[in-house]
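Sequence in, structure out.
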Amino acid sequence: MIHVYCYELNEGFQKKSFDKLLCSLPNEIQIRIRRFRNWEDQQASLIGKLLIRKGLHDLGSYNDDPLNRLQYNSFQKPFIEGNINFSISHSGRFVVCAISDINMLGIDIEQIRSIDVSPFKTHMTPNEWNEINKAIDKTAAFYSYWTKKEAVVKAIGKGLNIPLKSFSIRENKTTIDNQTWYLKKLNVGNENICHLALDEKVKQEQLVFQKIGEIE
């Protein structure tokens, strides 16, 4: 089963619940979160950790607090030992978290902003760049490719060691080192584009998407 959670940041939470919930986390994680300077980044980091906790409890994987087992690999990707995979992303007002005890996965969300996409040509293959330039909405086409590529890179967990131009997305899939990754678009509002990368095709009933209003 794959769980995907979506949470919208808000100042009310920051004033009412942030400090209390931050104190519920292991001390090392609290220190990491406090390093962020603005409240949006602090809240996004906190929510991401709370969504990991919720996801693991929903999967029935741990009775204790799984965040006590949180570690980071040499590329600074967080992980918990065992047959668990999770990925977090945030942009603008939204935080998304995907978690599974079966599939390797990665998730990426971007708030659509009016930007000049030309500097990003070096991150796209010639075919991808051609598709972006042919699109009626070039900005949306760019963000679609960008989130797909970022989701795949997050799933593999090697960070910038995998240049985005080194692989091509075609028909919502790509292959890297003999592993095929499948992309699914998630609906997180009209102002965002979000994609989930998975190591195999899954049926819709295997994926539970939930917008979280309250979290604890």
